[in-house]
Each structure stands twice: as structure tokens, then as C-alpha cells.
């Protein structure tokens, strides 16, 4: 039993290290120059949400998509996919079993597209909103992760001429995502 516990701890540490390396590589990619092309943000969001459906189901979380049928932006598909993967991963991680997580794409005011992931989990305390997009900040030590996901989202948003956004959902939950210029 003691050897098994040690091996499980080593395996857990190796998984955390691999995740950290993956996130650091994604951060480096997001900081490199990107070649933009017209892409349908709504189609990308639906596809990524479908990719996560099995994991959400296994976690007891209801994951879905609501929003526009089509929303064209200038973007780099791999980076926007990575941003959305990070947003969904965070929502599934922190919202908890029994939560509802919804991916939204819509036209915001003044020529902006909004890609957000909303959950009805416990949310984030108001005093922590300033830290959400900081590198290595985590909402909870128990949740795992390395604290780079949302900082990668922010970097990708900036690379696309947009910005990262986060706001509380009432009565509880979090709405986090990107605002990108429409083409």
C-alpha cells in the first residue's frame, strides 16, 4: 500500500508537470506572430464544445452551446481553439459536478464578437477578479492546474486585437471569455 501511494503521487506529479509544459508551450505559441484568416467563431465554438462533451458528461456537468449560427472574425484557428479549450477546462474544473456550462458566441456592441463560457458553479470572489488573468494564479489549490489557462486566454485575445473578459453570474457562477473585433 505504501509503495502504491508513492507511485500514485509520482504519477500525479508527472501529470501536473506535463500539463505545465503543455501550458507553457501554448503561452509561447500565443506570444509568437500569428497569421490571421477569416473564420467562423460560432462554428469553431460548437466544434470545441462537442469535443468536450464526453469529458463533461463523465464529470456530471451539462455542457452546451447557445448563440449565433455564424460570426466571422479574423483569427488564428489553433490559438482560438486553445483559448476556448482553456475556458471550458476551467469551467468544468471549478464549477463542479451537477453544474451547467454554456459556450456562447454573439455579436456584442460596437462591432465586437463575444466568445464566452458561462457556468453556474460557485464563481469567484470579487476580490480575486483582478487576479484571474495573472500567470500562475489559481482559484483553489485543490483544483489542480498550474494557473496559466486564463493568462493564455488573455494573451490570445490581445493577439487578435481583442481582450479577455470575466464577470460574475448572479446568483452564482462565472462568465469568462474573449471579445474580438468583427470583420
Describe the structure.
There is one protein chain. The chain is an alpha+beta fold and 183 residues long. The protein has one domain (2-181): Histidine kinase-like ATPase, C-terminal domain (Heat Shock Protein 90), CATH 3.30.565. It is built from 4 helices and 7 strands. It has helices at 2-31, 41-58, 77-95, 149-159, and strands spanning 37-40, 62-67, 72-75, 100-107, 112-119, 163-168, 174-181. The strands form 2 sheets. It has a 5-stranded mixed beta sheet. A two-stranded antiparallel ribbon has the order 1-3. Helix 1 runs parallel beside helix 4, helix 2 (41-58) packs parallel to helix 3 (77-95) and helix 3 runs antiparallel to helix 4. The longest helix is centred in the first third of the chain and has 30 residues, at 2-31. It starts with a helix and ends with a strand.
Class, according to the CATH hierarchy?
A: Alpha Beta
- Report the C-alpha radius of gyration, rounded: 17 Å
Order of helices and strands: HEHEEHEEHEE
Number of strand elements: 7
Range of helix content: 40-55%
| Whole-number count of domains | 1
Strand content range: 15-25%
**What is the CATH topology classification name?**
Heat Shock Protein 90
Number of helices: 4
Helix-and-strand structural type: alpha+beta
Major β-sheet strand ordering:
2-4-5-7-6
Give the N-to-C terminal Cα separation. 59 Å
Major sheet characteristics: 5 strands, mixed
Rounded mean pLDDT score? 83
How would you describe the shape?
Answer: globular
CATH architecture level-2 label = 2-Layer Sandwich
Classified in CATH, the superfamily is: Histidine kinase-like ATPase, C-terminal domain
List unreliable stretches of 5+ residues: none
